[in-house]
C-alpha cells in the first residue's frame, strides 16, 4: 500500500510502516573489526540509495554513535577545563615497535570517562526523539533512520541500557499521542524501532595482533583486552532478563583488515538480522509486576557483583 515502505535488499523484501528506525548495536573486543562493520553498513546503504533509482533506499538517514569518540571528547573537555590529565614518563612498546601511551587518570578524568557512557545514551535518546517528532507533514512521511552503536559492550547490562532507551522513547511517544478511536490506520503513524545486536567475535589472538599495529591511545594494553575477553557475555536471549537480545547474530571478522571491507556473505547475514528485528519491533516499556521487578533486581545484583570482582567495568571506562 502507499502507506507502507518497501524495504529491499539481496533476496529480501518486506514492508513496514513509513516511520521506522533500526538500532544496530555492535559489540566485541577492541580490534575485532566493529568499526569496519559500521563503515560497511553505511556504505552498503549509500549504494542501495544511489545505484538504482527503482529500488527504495533502506534508510534515508544513518547515524553512527561511536562510544570511543564520545569518550575522547569528554576527556578532552574535562582536561582542557581542569587540567587533570597527564602522561606518565613510561610507555610500552609492542612487538611491532609501535608505542602505546600509558596515561594516568585522576578522579576527575575517570568521571569524564564515566560521563561518556551517559552522553552516548543521551545522544541515542535525542536522535530517536528528534526522528519520531516529525510525524506531521507529507515531506517527512517516508523518513527512515539507521542508528549504528559501536562499543565493546562486553557486559549484557551495558547492552540492556541501550534497549531501555528505545523502550522509553516509544512509551513517551505513545503517551503523548492523541489516539482517535475511530481511526482505522492510527497504528501506521506509530513509531517502529527494530533492535539488533551484532557480536563481532573475532578470536582473541587476532584482536591482539591488530591492536599491536595501532599507535597512541588506539593501542590498548593487552591485559585489558584479555580480561575483557574472559568476561565477555555474548548475546543469548535464553539467559535471564535477556529476551531483548532476541535478534542477534555472531560474525567472525578474522579476514578483515583496516583497509578492506567485510565479506558480502557476512554483510548479508547482518542485513538479514536487522530486517528480522523490524518484523518484530520493540514494544513500549510497560509497568512491571512485583515478580518481574524482583527478577530484574536479582539480575542487576549479579551483574554488580561480577563487575566488582573483575573490575572490567572501570577498565572499559578508561578506554
**Strand element count:** 9
By secondary-structure content and strand pairing, the structural class works out as alpha/beta
Helix tally equals 9
The arrangement of helices and strands along the chain is EEEHEHEEHEHEHHEHHH
**What percent strand?**
15-25%
Helix-residue proportion = 40-55%
Main β sheet profile? 5 strands, parallel
Model regions low in confidence, pLDDT < 50 over at least 5 residues:
1-17, 50-57, 84-91, 102-106, 137-142, 178-188
Return Rg in Å: 21 Å
What this model shows, in words?
The chain starts with a strand and ends with a helix. The chain has a five-stranded parallel beta sheet with strand order 4-7-3-8-9, sandwiched between helices. Strands 1-2 form a two-stranded antiparallel sheet. A two-stranded antiparallel sheet has the order 5-6. Helix 2 (67-82) crosses helix 3 (107-133) and helix 5 (204-212) packs antiparallel against helix 6 (222-231). 45% of the residues lie in helices and 19% in strands. By secondary structure, the chain is an alpha/beta fold. The protein is globular.
Amino acid at each position: 500500500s502507499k502507506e507502507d515502505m518497501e524495504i529491499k535488499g539481496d533476496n529480501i523484501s518486506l514492508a513496514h510502516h513509513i516511520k521506522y528506525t533500526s538500532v544496530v548495536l555492535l559489540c566485541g573486543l577492541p580490534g575485532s573489526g566493529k568499526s569496519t562493520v559500521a563503515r560497511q553498513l553505511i556504505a552498503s546503504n549509500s549504494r542501495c540509495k544511489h545505484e538504482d533509482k527503482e529500488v527504495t533506499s533502506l534508510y534515508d538517514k544513518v547515524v553512527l554513535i561511536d562510544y570511543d569518540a564520545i569518550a575522547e571528547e569528554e576527556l578532552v573537555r574535562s582536561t582542557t577545563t581542569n587540567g587533570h590529565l597527564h602522561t606518565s614518563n613510561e610507555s610500552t612498546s609492542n612487538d611491532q615497535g609501535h608505542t602505546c601511551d600509558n596515561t594516568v587518570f585522576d578522579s576527575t578524568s575517570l568521571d569524564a570517562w564515566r560521563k561518556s557512557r551517559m552522553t552516548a545514551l543521551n545522544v541515542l535518546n535525542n536522535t530517536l526523539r528528534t526522528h519520531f517528532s516529525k510525524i506531521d507533514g507529507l515531506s517527512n512521511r517516508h523518513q527512515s533512520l539507521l542508528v549504528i552503536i559501536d562499543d565493546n559492550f562486553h557486559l549484557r547490562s551495558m547492552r540492556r541500557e541501550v534497549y531501555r532507551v528505545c523502550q522509553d522513547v516509544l512509551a513517551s511517544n505513545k503517551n503523548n499521542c492523541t489516539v482517535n478511536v475511530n481511526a482505522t490506520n492510527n497504528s501506521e503513524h506509530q513509531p517502529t524501532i527494530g533492535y539488533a545486536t551484532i557480536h563481532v567475535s573475532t578470536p582473541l589472538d587476532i584482536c591482539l595482533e591488530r591492536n599491536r599495529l595501532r599507535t597512541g591511545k588506539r593501542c590498548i594494553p593487552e591485559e585489558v583486552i584479555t580480561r575483557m575477553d574472559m568476561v565477555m557475555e555474548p548475546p543469548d536471549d535464553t539467559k535471564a532478563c535477556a529476551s531483548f537480545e532476541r535478534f542477534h547474530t555472531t560474525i567472525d571478522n578474522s579476514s578483515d583488515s583496516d583497509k578492506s571491507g567485510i565479506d558480502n556473505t557476512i554483510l548479508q547475514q547482518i542485513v538479514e538480522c536487522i530486517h528480522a528485528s523490524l518484523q518484530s519491533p520493540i514494544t513500549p516499556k510497560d509497568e512491571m509486576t512485583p515478580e518481574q521487578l524482583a527478577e530484574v533486581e536479582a539480575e542487576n545484583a549479579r551483574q554488580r557483583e561480577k563487575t566488582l570482582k573483575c573490575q572490567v567495568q572501570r577498565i572499559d571506562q578508561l578506554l
